[in-house]
Structures are given as structure tokens and as C-alpha cells.
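Hey,
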Amino acid sequence: MTVVERREVALVDLLDRLLAGGVVITGDLTLRIADVDLVRIDLNALISSVNENVPAPWGEML
């Protein structure tokens, strides 16, 4: 076993790394009975941390 394989990462550290870079989640879910689509859900989500150095897209427009 190498050092990289034995390295343990806490869940908080992993979440911090993901939020620092941003995460995009996409997916499709279809509920189907007898080949008839009843419900379809499309998911597109961007999860990222907020930083005061990055301007908000809804900020003041002059």
C-alpha cells in the first residue's frame, strides 16, 4: 500500500475542496409504467461557494 492509498480524507475536507472548485450535478429520472412515461424530472444544479471577490450576477446595474 502506498502513502496515497492509505491517506484518509475527512468529509469536511472533501466538501471544502468540492465547494472551492464548484460541482455540477446533472441527471434525468423517469417514472414509467407499462412503457408509458408518467413523470420525468431533469436535474441541473451548480453548487459552489460564495466569495466576496466574485461579483453577484444579480448585483446593482448602473
